[in-house]
Amino acid sequence: MSYQRVKNRFKDLCKEIEVFAKKKTGGIALFLFIIQFITGMVLSFYYIPYFEQAHKSILDIVTKLNMGCFFRSIHHWGAQLIMAALFIHTFSILLLKSYRRPKHLLWLSGFILLGISIFFGLSGYLLVWDERAFAAVKVATGGAGSIPIAGVFIKSFLRGGIDVTGETLTRFHAFHVSILPIIAILLICIHILLVQYRVTSMPFSLKKRTKQTPFFPYRFYKYLIICLIVLGIVVTLATLFPPEIGKNADPLAPAPENIKPEWYFLFLFQTLKLFPGEILGLNGEMIAVTIISCGIFFLFLIPFFDKRAVQGIRNTVFTWIGIAYTLYFIVMTVMGFLS
Q: Across the chain, which distance is largest between two alpha carbons, in Å?
């Protein structure tokens, strides 16, 4: 095979990966959300959202309930994969600049959905009520308290008081099973409607490939095959690697050593570790949280800053900004995992 032929094949492969990351991961996330909805309903029949019985009810689900361990494991791995799909989808949209008009509303609604999914993960994490989840939520809500101006209110609102207690568990359960699902379903409907009715803004690299195939039957069957593959992956992971359950949370006990949050929080966790406790007389954690919040807010509004992309003109500055955000997330996550 000639060098030119290999080069062309490699380019075609890159294009296919781009299309998959941009379009298919969103559909995969939707399919996983449906799985989470079904398994969550099943688990909610047996879960007791009270701090003295929450941990025991989880143990009863996985040890006494018929296929309880399997359903919980499916719910756990579904949450992991949905976060992976959403991050890949978001970063691919960012790098391909598919956030530009007329799809800026898609970007905004998708970005909010990503934030809600992260809160889904955090609220569901505490429901296990083991020592690891307790410590992780204490750190996460404590970090939220460092947000300037509104931080104290947010921290108190999330915890339902000064510290993480049974009241926090009750609130997180309410968020996880009632408030967040309603908001998520509403936003997903809006997002899908925007996908269907907004004018397409193809990535610069895919401008020449404008031919669209009808959704049914070709794209529908392809999506069905992808869903079956994803379902197979989730079932395999759930069967081979059921999630562990730690010791019952004790608010008076010290946090376990070498404790880490879920992988999708590691980039925040690692960033906070890089900042000293005090910088020029100011609280280091507050400075770190402020910088992170500004970075997230800038990313949320990036369609309005990248005005050249709106006009269909390449802008290398925002290309490098997108690469920087992606590398930052990957590097910080890997560092947090290895440290």
A: 68
pTM passes above 0.90: no
- Which is it for strands 278-279 and 282-283: parallel, antiparallel or unpaired? antiparallel
Query: Three-state SS string across 149-189, please?
Result: CCHHHHHHHHHCCCCCCHHHHHHHHHHHHHHHHHHHHHHHH
The predicted-structure confidence for 256-291, as pLDDT tens digits, reads as follows 777 778 888 888 888 888 887 777 777 778 888 889
The whole-angstrom separation of Cα 247 and Cα 197 is 50
List, as one string, the DSSP characters of 221-236: HHHHHHHHHHHHHHHH
Tens digits of residue pLDDT in 28-63: 999 999 999 999 999 999 999 998 899 999 999 999
State the Cα–Cα distance between residues 228 and 308, nearest whole angstrom. 40
Q: Helices 25-44 and 180-197 meet at what angle, rounded to 10?
A: 160
Q: Which residue has the tokens 């992808």?
A: 226
State residue 160 phi and psi, 5-degree precision.
Answer: 70, 25
What is the 8-class DSSP label of residue 22? I
146 contact partners, CB below 8 Å, separation of at least 6: 283, 285, 286, 288, 289, 290
Regions of the chain where pLDDT drops below 70: 1, 3, 7, 10, 13-22, 198-216, 310, 312
Instruction: Note whether 141 and 158 are within 8 A (CB).
Output: yes
Beta bridge partners of 283: 278
Residue type, 58: I
Q: Is the dihedral of CA 126, 334, 98, 17 positive or negative?
A: negative
CB contact set of 304 (below 8 Å; sequence gap of 6+)? 104
Lookup: tokens for 122:
């955090």
